[in-house]
SHOCT domain-containing protein
Amino acid sequence: MTRSYVTAATIAASLVATALLLASCGSDHKTITNRLVPMAQSEADLRRALDMGAISQSEYNDQIDRLHHGD
């Protein structure tokens, strides 16, 4: 009986620890901009994504505005 209690407690503790770790991930919504990619390349990449349908026209416009005017 003691062994199954220890196993259940270990599993419960592992689940709680996992939940706490996952809750802490993604809590910061800070966007990091890669300054090493030239603006012309970023524009070309965005245009390619738009042409392929990976992003919408409004998403493209938003990203171009961010690229030119900052966050």
Observations:
- The mean pLDDT is 78.
